[in-house]
Amino acid sequence: MKSQFKNSFAITKKQWNGMLVLVILILLVLAAPYVYQYFRKDTIINFTSFDAAAAQLIKAQKTDSIAATKAPAYNNNQPANTYVSNKLKPGATIELNAADSAQLTTVRGIGASFAIRIIRYRNRIGGFYNKEQLKEVYELDSTKYAEIKDQLTVNPSAIIKININTISFASLRQSPYLSYKQASAIIEYRTQHGNYNSIDDVGSVAIITPEVLHKIEPYIKFK
């Protein structure tokens, strides 16, 4: 049959072999995505440490609740089994950049999970310069923010600044305020034009919008 096919179309042996090679290459190209998907192993984010920390904090809260003062009556004016809450008293506040996760759970409306998320986000951005940034924390919406904001204060001088003239791309990329392309553009502009001297120089990078510039400005230093 192969000979009949070759004769019908006047195909030489060399052309026939070439067609076979072409067909094989096409099949390989079509099969490549499936082969890649079969052998590719997705990177799995390991939340074991996060879950362990959350469990430990929740356990500590339960222990505190159980051990909370159920004070015996020392006089007729103090009822027995009085529960003493570990939450902040009305009017008391916590400084957001200095608080640890245990202190954050004393804020009414913040539990163990939110406390850990806030700490993790604070570490990633280098500290909070205003309370509104709490809305950027995962699942901390406007309703939750309104519930907790009056129990918190912020010391902007506590934030950690990066030197925009020495930071590497890998470190700059960690900022949640910059996309991959924006971080790359900042490094490339520095390479081509030299060190930045002011925030206006950073604004000269074409894809850095005024909104992004406003967000990153508090975290940048030039020397």
Q: What does this 3D model show about the protein?
A:
With 223 residues, this protein is mainly α. Helices cover 49% and strands 5% of the residues. It is built from 10 helices and 6 strands; from the N terminus they run αααβββαααββααααβ.
Feature tags:
223 residues, mainly alpha, two-stranded antiparallel ribbon, two-stranded parallel ribbon
Characterize this entry briefly:
This protein is mainly α.
Portion of residues in beta strands equals 5-15%
What strand line-up does the widest sheet have? Answer: 1-2
Output the structural class.
mainly alpha
The topology string of helices and strands comes to HHHEEEHHHEEHHHHE
Record the SSE blueprint:
Layout: H1 2-8, H2 13-39, H3 48-67, E1 70-71, E2 82-83, E3 94-95, H4 101-104, H5 112-125, H6 142-148, E4 152-153, E5 162-163, H7 169-172, H8 180-193, H9 199-203, H10 210-216, E6 220-221
Parallel strand pairs: 3-4, 5-6
Antiparallel strand pairs: 1-2
